[in-house]
Give the backbone structure.
Amino acid sequence: MKTIINTFRYGNARTKFALLLMGTGLLAGLGILAYSLIFAKYIATFAALIILVADVGFILSTDFRDLILPNHKRKRKDKKEKPGEDDDGTDFIVPEEIDAELETPQKRIIPPDVNPLTLYDAKRYKKLFVQYKVKQDHELILIDNCASEHIIECPAILWKDKTTAYVLLLEAEPRMIKYNMYDYNEMHIRAAVDADPKHEYKDFKETTFIGKLFTPLLPNYTTIEDRGRKSICKKALYGIGPDIFCTSNSVKNILKVLSLNMVLTESKIQRGSYSDWFKRIYISRLMYRDKIFSAPEYQAQVMGILDQMAEKADNEDFNNSITQMTLGGLIPQEYADYANFKRK
């Protein structure tokens, strides 16, 4: 009875109308039945029974818990209390939107100085694959930075379907980003980004489950000397999607999932008057330096590009490219001789 009273008290117009209809039908049926019995009106008795049967059927078929009660707020429960009971043990009505909110897991509050990699163990890591429907042919990548998504030095899982690339970020709370592969079919290479190995990727210096998985993907660093004979550390970054720049040791895994054309960005080579053949071999040498290509793979790449150039380039383009490659130290003289022999 208290459930019905609470339903009428907190219900909306539709709810109250349903309850009034039930009550009116019940009272009308009982009134007509009493009249028919007193005055021996059998037709009225029959009508009263029809009204009462219909009303009782309506009441029994109504689930009061399904009625939406937007003004009723659910009280917090102690762990010992049963779900669906008020503090005094009485059933109450819970709005659907409140139920949904209470069933949704609350995000943990992570202090800013906590290493996010320590928040994942093998059990939580495996659960992510089910939760986010990670495909079996996925690969691990390490994102150096992504300005648009505010990502810094973050391990991630990469996979795809027919049109979409998915990147699951293993931040303090996991986060999914995705993009259309046909809108981003290039890998943008930043060949010489300033680096500071002592202060980068500090989270990976602590022993963690995730750290062990992703440590092989940490960047390769190159030390060069500037004009003042001061050592400067550089690293190459490889961008996928809108601006997701990954470490060089992630590239092999990326190329297992995505088919991409290599493009230089923020490079003097890209801005200079170098031929496309020169740029292609330059990219191959860069990827060899970053251990993406082995020595045999690099040699095969260079010879394949020279073969294509010998067959397809016009005379001016071929001669200019060979000159740029040899003078720039991109290929040895025997490779130039091979290209000329192939050309003839």
